[in-house]
């Protein structure tokens, strides 16, 4: 692919001219694994790096595999709108939207950078004191520490096996 075509693609994706500078308009890429604690009042100190990337307003919602999603407001709205476009004629989408939105809550970190994990979501994901927060691209996920260890162990072999199916166009 020639550089001019590639640069135009970056400009179109980012909405601004100019290669690498245009990449600054992309949403933050949430990465890493963190191990904060949930206190007796249900509060968790959000890792500082993730707090900055998620922004001041975020949404917590039920996630797949019994975790809790933590999404920037804009990403939560994008997902909800995408599901709503298909929900009227698609029973599975309607069902998913009901569960997803009914378990969603707005969150804003307090002055110490803590967020309250509501009891409903702690029960859903079986969250106790020990949790793991992982960055998963456009969202973070909060997992029960033991459940995360089990999930990760169960995915080890599959991670290598499915790489060609999931990443067919990416070369390492």
From TrEMBL:
<keyword id="KW-0238">DNA-binding</keyword>
<dbReference type="InterPro" id="IPR037914">
    <property type="entry name" value="SpoVT-AbrB_sf"/>
</dbReference>
<dbReference type="GO" id="GO:0000976">
    <property type="term" value="F:transcription cis-regulatory region binding"/>
</dbReference>
<dbReference type="InterPro" id="IPR003444">
    <property type="entry name" value="MraZ"/>
</dbReference>
<comment type="subunit">
    <text>Forms oligomers.</text>
</comment>
<keyword id="KW-0804">Transcription</keyword>
<dbReference type="GO" id="GO:0005737">
    <property type="term" value="C:cytoplasm"/>
</dbReference>
<comment type="similarity">
    <text>Belongs to the MraZ family.</text>
</comment>
<feature type="domain" description="SpoVT-AbrB">
    <location>
        <begin position="104"/>
        <end position="147"/>
    </location>
</feature>
<dbReference type="Pfam" id="PF02381">
    <property type="entry name" value="MraZ"/>
</dbReference>
<dbReference type="InterPro" id="IPR007159">
    <property type="entry name" value="SpoVT-AbrB_dom"/>
</dbReference>
<keyword id="KW-0805">Transcription regulation</keyword>
<dbReference type="InterPro" id="IPR035642">
    <property type="entry name" value="MraZ_N"/>
</dbReference>
<dbReference type="GO" id="GO:2000143">
    <property type="term" value="P:negative regulation of DNA-templated transcription initiation"/>
</dbReference>
<feature type="domain" description="SpoVT-AbrB">
    <location>
        <begin position="33"/>
        <end position="75"/>
    </location>
</feature>
<dbReference type="InterPro" id="IPR035644">
    <property type="entry name" value="MraZ_C"/>
</dbReference>
<dbReference type="GO" id="GO:0009295">
    <property type="term" value="C:nucleoid"/>
</dbReference>
<dbReference type="GO" id="GO:0003700">
    <property type="term" value="F:DNA-binding transcription factor activity"/>
</dbReference>
<dbReference type="InterPro" id="IPR020603">
    <property type="entry name" value="MraZ_dom"/>
</dbReference>
<keyword id="KW-0677">Repeat</keyword>
<dbReference type="InterPro" id="IPR038619">
    <property type="entry name" value="MraZ_sf"/>
</dbReference>
<protein>
    <recommendedName>
        <fullName>Transcriptional regulator MraZ</fullName>
    </recommendedName>
</protein>
<keyword id="KW-0963">Cytoplasm</keyword>
